[in-house]
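[Automated response] Your request has been received and processed.

Submitted sequence:
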Amino acid sequence: MVTTRAPEDAYTAEPFVPEGPRDLTALRKAAADCHGCPLHRDATQTVFGAGSAHARVMLVGEQPGDQEDRQGKPFVGPAGKLLDRALEEAGLDPADAYITNAVKHFKFTRAEPRKRRIHKAPSLREMTACGPWLAAELALVEPELIVVLGATAGKALLGSSFRVTQVRGTVLEEEIHGRPERLVPTVHPSSVLRSDDREAAYQGLVSDLAVAARALS
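Generated structure:
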């Protein structure tokens, strides 16, 4: 029997999102079995969001990295450690935040078999397919502010025309998944680690996060 695959634009997580009363635990359990796009085939596991269901701020990144894929938790690698330090320096307690990614599975490539897995940016269609999970997280947490970490997260939330360099460190007011939201975009912490001038890039991240802290005060 010949098996045909659905076209990429038909991929969606919607059938896997539970209906009716739910909480973050129920969402996380359901997301573990999500096959809404092809990324689940090569990833170790779904990496769902983590943090308080009553968090005032939600941080949204791009996708899990290698360490996140192995541990099943968001932002546990070097970029996550840098982000925690920047949040504290900016006056935001990481323990009071909810942190997640626009895409819940690790997308990667390898130069050779058994070699290190190299991050590969998700496509807009893959981000759109995963959108129902992010919409469900936003509906449950109801954050006062969303911190957008990087260009990919910005495109997932605000559309393909989003440019982080144009709006970073500003407070935006937009409708996201049918809800009015306030957002502060900034760079992804992994870009700080790749920067030629890491200290300047780090201070820029802290400055943007300080805008978020003031918006919550």
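Summary generated for your ticket: The chain has eight helices and eight strands. Confidence is low (pLDDT under 50) at residues 1-6.
If you did not submit this request, please reply to this message.
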